[in-house]
Amino acid sequence: MTTTGGARLVDGYALVVFDLDGVIYLVDRPIPGAVEAVSQLHADGQAVAYATNNASRRSSEVADLLTGMGIAARPEEVLTSAAAAAQLLRERYPEGSQILVVGAEALRAEIRAAGLTPVTRADDGPVAVVQGYGPQVGWTDLAEAAVAVRGGATWVATNTDRTLPSGRGPLPGNGALVAAVRTSLGRGPDVIVGKPAPELFAAAARRVPAGRALVVGDRLDTDIEGAVRAGLDSLLVLTGVSDVAELLAAPPQRRPTYVSVDLAGLFEPEAVVRVPGPMEAGGWSAAVRDGRLELSGAGRTLGALPVLCTAAWSTAQPSPVRAASSAAERALATFGLLSD
């Protein structure tokens, strides 16, 4: 089962909003095919935007990074959780207010640009703590944040991503650092700015007519849930964090509109599927039997995903998966789903 009528997926939207880590690049290297995909969108006159939870770079720095990879990008096309957090704090507190910053220099720069004063110690009397990912964040930074929040400061997290993708696999993200402070305080942040909160995507979508923005992400718990909460269609690509096993176990608020292996799904009808689909389609069928999700039949490998999602999402609990045909076994192996 492909998208409607064999048309290019991208042609149904006025704006494509990309996540960055795991979709466009891993750390500082472009994902294969990403440069070509965005270049094709530019050549077609398609509007694009980028929404990232990573608070370690400013919008201009992200645009420069993308441009250096061969993707022409402007700062105004980039929405970061760091800038959104700074804007939120500027709306809440008077100019010059002291904000304890836990994170990278980019987050401090956004706080300064918003007319606020970044500080590093709880003894400075900050009205708020803003916490974002930074590779140099250490115990002392987390301790100062805990003391300030316990003393009455508002606690704002740019995001709570448990991990961030890398060439060596998932690494601890800002959510892991937030969890350390949460453990010491016995409570979570007062405000979480980034995905899955909908504002980054909603801000991008306001640039085009309602409902005509497509979110492209690699994480069900941030990108896809954020799109659902913003009321936007989404495309899950399997180049980053979330895999097919996580997709089949996804609750309703984390279910994408479409799935593709990579960004080729934007342009090639055979490289993308809409989920869920019928219980039988494209030569495949799936059902839950004896507490196990069973795939049978034969067809295009990616075409098995809609029927698998339909069967899996019809049950209250995730089910182990088994193959009922040799073609199904090969498809499940491709998806990393083979079980004993």
UniProtKB/TrEMBL annotation:
The UniProt entry's GO CC annotations, sorted and at most eight, read: cytoplasm
| Keyword Hydrolase attached | yes
Write the record's keywords in alphabetical order, separated by commas: Hydrolase
Instruction: Write down the superkingdom of origin.
Output: Bacteria
This chain's protein is named HAD superfamily hydrolase (TIGR01450 family)
Q: Where is the GCN5-related N-acetyltransferase-like domain?
A: 282-337
Record's InterPro entries? GNAT-like (IPR041065), HAD-like_sf (IPR036412), HAD-SF_hydro_IIA (IPR006357), HAD_sf (IPR023214)
What the entry lists under Gene3D superfamilies is as follows: HAD superfamily/HAD-like
Instruction: Give the Gene Ontology MF terms in alphabetical order.
Output: phosphatase activity
Stored Pfam families: GNAT_like (PF18407), Hydrolase_6 (PF13344), Hydrolase_like (PF13242)
